[in-house]
Protein 1
Amino acid sequence: MEEKPAEKLFPKSRVTRMVKRALEIGEHKAIDRYNIPLLRLNAGGIIEKVNKKATTSFSTPAEQLIGRPVTELFHSEPGDHHTILHEVNAAMSKAEPGQTVALPPALVMRKDPSGESIESIARFSVYRPVKGEPKIYVSMTHTRRVLEKSKLLREFFDLADTVNSQRDLNKVLQGVADHFASRFNAIAIVVRPNGGNTLKLAAAAGKGLNVPDFIRFNEIPIGSGLLGKAAESLRPIEVENLREWSESFNPELDADYNFHHSIAVPLTVKGADGKPVLVGVIGLFKGGEHAHEKFRPHEKRMFEVLAGNTATAIHNAKLTRDLRFMAERDEQTGLYNRRVLFRRMR
């Protein structure tokens, strides 16, 4: 029997994506690439391979994990172990050659490096190759991380509602800067196109921020510095240490605020021709006591998602402002028209 195309075998879950990737680039590379504890078991539930994250999470060298029953790592009731193993065995019997079966997530207890029992979510996937014994892959995620992601999602949706309900452009921009600065413990800078090849400061927020220090952000050439390069490429740009980055726009400011890990995301909307149109750039700069903190992968993904929503809100607010201007002012002189004057005289 021939192997079926990998993309038709695997449901879209993290472990099964890893199995698919293992078939493409080799199991060793695929397992070590994941930043979560990941184990490979044989059909009897004995650990055959672990990644680096698993050795850290269990505070045990790989050679001491390999060869042990996986149930020894879980500190749940024996009945729970029996249920998990029963479901794994059932999945092995159902899996056809060349197919992967993903099991529902299981709640288990394991010990962290400090010896404390922590609640985790274990995900099992069974892969039956055309030839050879079935392989069982197990990943584990700390429930605290899941809750943090859920909290982050709620915060972002709350911000999206707030931003979308605003029509005042300045309030939209400042609200975005305030939220990002607070949530990510960073200095948040929002800039907008200045009508030419430069960007101007639109909003800023963050602990220890002194707005006059950022006046130079009123004239940032597109293509210069972190924000300018994000505007030019229309792609997110991330820098590990801004102080050591040779293309920084303002090295003195980076040194004063001790900026290290920083990221800039362009705010774009789709134009009439279907191409992206730049409406702004938002940058997050880690400095001060948070200088050496890094943005986690899910935070960066959500940052980019909200940036798209923010771009639409900025675009809508700008359209509202422009329409109000056209309705109330003379297009040649810029003065208020008769309707506005009569309304104000009443």
Protein 2
Amino acid sequence: MEKIVTILTQIGAFTGFVAFVFKAYEFWRDRRPSLRISTSFTSDPNRGSTILILNSSKVGTTINYYTLEALPPSWLRRRGWWRRFPEGHDHVEFTLEAEHVKIEVPGYGQGMIKFSEADHFQWGVKRTDDLYLRVWTSTREAPFSFLVARAGGS
């Protein structure tokens, strides 16, 4: 009987430790927003292309600035292993220049960026470079980088 109590005590202690590890991981993971994008492209500049920013964490954020930048296609960049934007990069397709925006993306919510009229960008088969959206938020110093459109429209 004493052995059973000892085994149950050890199982309970181990289960409590595993629960603590999961809670610590959840706390660490939920400190920052987890953003991803969904795109809706159109060739009509009057309607414009829409980029929907989805937040799948409980922490909200504010987008302060964003740019669209073109980089040569690379397998490493598309997989997220080499997301470097060189200094003096002159392939910026859209920038706010001196302006700042305030796009609220609440926890488990979404925000929207629309590119219409003069801001409309090419996204189809004529595209020769990959197009990335770089987003600066209130919760991170480094920007988020998202692949928006691949070269060749694929």
Protein 3
Amino acid sequence: MVRTSSITAKRSNTGAKGRAIRHGLTLIELVIVVALLGLLTAIAIPGVQMAVEGRAVREAARSVNVYLGAARNRAKVTGRPVGVAFQRFSSDDPYYNMCITLHQVETPPSYAGGTMSSYAQVYFSGSALTAQLSDGAATVTKVKVGDHIQFNHQGPWHRITENNNGALTLYPEPNRMYPLLNGVAMPYEVRCQPRLTGTTAILERAAYSKPLQLPLDAVVDLTFSGLKADPSNHFSCATPGNTDPVVVMFSPSGGLEGVYYGSNRKDGEKVYLLIGKRDRIPGTSADDGLSNLRDPECLWVTVSPRSGLINTAENAQVADDSQITAARDFADDQQSMGGR
């Protein structure tokens, strides 16, 4: 009896041809599961995308902070102004108002002539002061208008107002003059001054430092970046075809030497750089109508004029783009995030 019951139970789990019956999901159940997975994925994608974009902005702000700090340290080490050039992405509208590539730039080293026997002869008559450099025409590429020259390793630095093939016209420092021998040959030193003249930069791209490329989809939004004193005096460009960079220069003391954009030079003002998202640049193909200024996920990188200290701060969620002063004030009030 026991054996017969065992055989009967075994046969009850087999089909007509002796095959085991397998339990699984029906087609309808599979369709429902796939639909639920698709729905959950659709719900999760926007959140994941926002997290990725926010991470790109934070990484870009950290990179800009560190890159500026490296230029500041370089200026203190070399004793010459060193800075960062924010290159406009393109000359086409509206891409000239965003930056994704940064370069370190510096003023050339002091120039004291092309040979060991180079010299200058100084001539003065009343308030007029001129000098003739022995290198002649060779100095045209080295000595520029606006540079400063010192003779015999002492005395004041005189600003050069003209260089005609080595014949210099100088702006004398009347209250700091010291006796100069008229026409006597003496050594000289020329210190270059950082500046932009139109589209010509009197700066050298630093060979020791590689360009900084910001993470994908992160940009420096030049539309709202600018200076503290006058919020309307920002770095945006309204002229298509203009690719002049924005240059932030540090002095050997560590403070700001000046900020250059186009033919402008400003000093003594705090710098505000808005780190945002590419699809928040007005007019781009991905523009979704929300500017970086109104996006709380964007960040500010600021540079203090006197100390040159670089901070990263949160962005306010302002109501419209005209509230740029409120957004910058909010950044000033926030505790520094230390370039996180």
Protein 4
Amino acid sequence: MFSKRLWTLLLFPIFYCFGFAHAQLHPKEALGRIVFDSFRYNNFKPFFERSIFALTEQEFKSFLYGIRNQSIRNELIALHRQPFPENLITASSKWEIAFQHNWRRQWRHLSRNSPNLVREQSFLPILREAHGYQIQWETVKLMAIEELLPVTWKNGRFVVKGDADVDEDTSIPRTLHMDRNLSYRLRLDNLTYSKAFMIGFHPEDSEKTYDRGIVGNGSGQGDVVVRFDQSSPNRLHYFCPDQVGAGGNIMIRNYSDFDKPNQRSDLLLTFSYGEPRQAYQILIREILWTPKGPLFCEKPQWLGETYSTRGLKFE
């Protein structure tokens, strides 16, 4: 098994332009399809090429240095073994030193993982799990590729999984950055019970909800499924109609607009198999933008059978 240190400390990006967002498939959806088909056809090469291990040393160096993700920067700063000069008080100045002293160590961790090791410890386990369910890949149907956003309740407000932006004030509710033409599944945990998660034009007004492309908006139970398109506004709000100050802003952009933090994200692949059709899921973990587009940085996880299929249709 890969250690947490080998995988998750290696997650950092410079941005790569794929063209106009309205002209083609969202790159994260493309990543999900490629990874899914690598399992379907037992083809390891495209799987490896969509992992963090596909980066060269120089690509990794520039990727790490330019990371717009304060949470990842803080992880590397915490590993810095020497005391910082007393006059360094900003996170950015500490990052400059931590990067120079630690990027090669991170690269060495990355480069130790050969293609054979990645195949044995990351690719084949998914195939073995599927075999245990007697999955016949030639007859499966891919139902959805969604970014999974776990949501909990803490200190009187919704907390949506995500990394802090550079120099972001984490004491205020987090702004959600969402792309057009990409599906999101907000999965509310038990702590949100009886707390309706609502999306609307106004930060507190339940009479001004925005429902286009949203399933389960304000229902108070189950997942909330969101997909914004070119007609969606650039800014909305998420909130709880029964609790003032429980939400925050939602900024909606095209994927080619990189004026946003580069946050680690998980892709949920849902597919159906059997008669009657049953849904199964695989989680592609810790995806970040890199010079080669979005790459995953953690081992995919087999989730198995699921009944949480709100917003999906069996064909």
